[in-house]
Each structure stands twice: as structure tokens, then as C-alpha cells.
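Researcher: Structure for this, please.
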Amino acid sequence: MASGPSVNLLDMASSVMSAAVGASLTIRAFALPEDSNKNARLKVDGTFVTDADYAAQQIITSAVQRVSTNVRILGEESPEGGAKIPQEKLEHASDAGMREGCRREVFLRFKNRSGGSQAPQSLPLAVSSHDATIENKPSYDLSEDEKKEVIVDVSRVCVIIDPLDGTSSYAKGKYDAVSVLVSVNLDYQPHFGVICKPFGYEGLPPVMGTPCAAVYGGPLLGGGFIAGGDTLLPVSAATQPTNSENPSSDLPRAIISSSRSKGVVEDVCKQLGMLGVIDPTPMHISGAGEKALRLVLRQHNEGLWFFPKSGTSLWDVAAADAMLRSLGGKVTDKFGRPLDYSKSRDEAENEDGVIACADDKLHAECMRVFQNGKWEE
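Model: Predicted structure, C-alpha cell format:
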């Protein structure tokens, strides 16, 4: 048990999960026709930001501080740049029903992972309305061993926030690439993550009757889950071709950006395809959060996000890193080293790139090919 100020990781996980949905609803509100320009502007680093970015981060930050004011927060947006949120756009940001639903679902997942009797047969986030009465309210009691696991010294915890990933697409009215990404890190390692899609997602159920969809999980819960869904996310296994007529159709696929894939990204993916490690045709996907979500869901056999150069930051990958750790995947830099989550906001860029895989064996093979070759940026 922590001897100083402590924080309950289950409370923190459920709070940021609820806030991710609240932030998503606020992002939707800012996307209404009367806000068509979304007050988009460039930051000093050359990236876009909108009022919705700041509003979403404010919502999530407030949710973190509701659990503990002492937890370190690493957010993409500078706190000094925050915009005032119109009250009408805060309707769902602090909804008590959503907070309770997330708390119950996270707790049920945790107890089920621990071998308890409270299997999540009826998930709170699957109800049709955030105002709905959720029956079979669980007890939030924890055993002494469980308390030792989830109640930790606050100095060991950091919450990493990307309040609106895909801002450039969002400002242009292209919403498929938009995501809200939050991770709860323990001892500088991703321990719980949530990826929320403000405008919904094909194949995922809505969260408590909202238009949003979400996935969550990590070592804290021992797996990955669809919010309100009745199935677990799949644990990766080494992919072997099984279709003799078209073996490549069974291979994992690379997901890359069409605008930033020239040079080493395309060359390495092409080589991996020639070797039969991945499908020779990569998928061109916008948004770091969208790429991360695809690795977690693997709906179309997505298996590799290869980007061995600067251009992403810790908040782009932390949430997916948490889930992939529980799903058989792996996230490193281009040297095969774990990402350094101890860095400050000013140092948060992944200067040595990101190599993320849904399967650790695929990651090892990708690293072998990359490190043994001579590539030009």
C-alpha cells in the first residue's frame, strides 16, 4: 500500500474513459455547421489546433484532477492556450451517468480478470441511454491483494492526453481520422488506455446511446475491450498464410500515411512484402490515433505501423501501447527500445520513430529486416 498520497488506478481509468466520451461529444458540438471553420490556426510547431482541442483537453484534465490533483499530466496542448467552453457544449462533459457507467464497466472487467465471480454479463456501457438505470450494481469492494495492485503512490502515475488526434482532418470536416487518446501510465509504462471515436466507428457499438465508440484496456485489466461490447479484443498470434490460392491475403497489412510514406517507410514495407512477411499492398490511413486503433482492432488484418522517423509524439501512441501490451503486440522506437514515457511535454516527440505491431513476432522480423538493410530517409 502506498505510504504517501495515493491514487486508485481503477478510479483513474474509469474517470478518463468517461472524460474521453465527454470530450468526444464536445468535439462533435464544435463541429456543428455554425462552427464550420472551428477557429483552426497553426501552433508554433506548425501543426493545427482548434478550440475543440483545448476544450477536450480541459474536460479530460478536470476528470483526472477529480480523482487526484497530484497526478502528473502530459497533454498535447499547452494549458495556457485553453479556450473557454460554451456552456451548451458542455452538456455531456461531466455527465454523472456516464461516469458511473464507466466505473462499473472498468470494475467488472478488473474483477473478471482477477478470477472473481462478477463476470461482465450485462455491461453498463451497452445500455441505450446515459440516463438509463443500470441494474445489478456491483460492489466496489476490493480484496487486500487487489488494493495493493490498484492503490498506488501518486508519484508513480502519469496521465497522457491527446485530446483531438487528427486535428488537420477535423478542421477540413474529414471526421473518420479523428480520435481522443488517453493513457494512464504506471512507473512510466502504459498501464491503461482508451481510444474514443467521436463520430462513431464501423463495427463498434455506441457508448451508452451516444454517437461515440471506444475501445479500452491494458495490463490493468488484463486485456483489450470494446466499450459496451460483449467480446474481447483478439490476442495476436503469429500470422501464417493459410490461403494457398492467395497467400498474401492472410498476411498482416502495413498501415502508413500517404503523405509521409516516401523513402524508408515505403522501401521497408516493400521489402517485407517481397519476403512474405506482410501483405505487399499497404493501407494508406490518416491520423496516428486511427492507425493505432486499427492495430488494436485488426478488423482487416492490420498488423504493422512502421514510421522510423520523427513526426509523432508520446500522446499519439501511449493509449494503443497500453492495449497492445495485453494483446500480444509491441511498440518500440526504430532501435527496438521501449518508448521513454518519462519525458516532459517539451521532449515528447518520438525522434527515433515508432514501430508498432499487433504481434511481437512480426515486430522482431520487421526489426531484423530494417536493421540489416541500408535505407535512405
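Researcher: Any notable elements?
Model: The chain has a mean pLDDT of 84. The CA atoms of residues 12 and 67 lie 6 Å apart.
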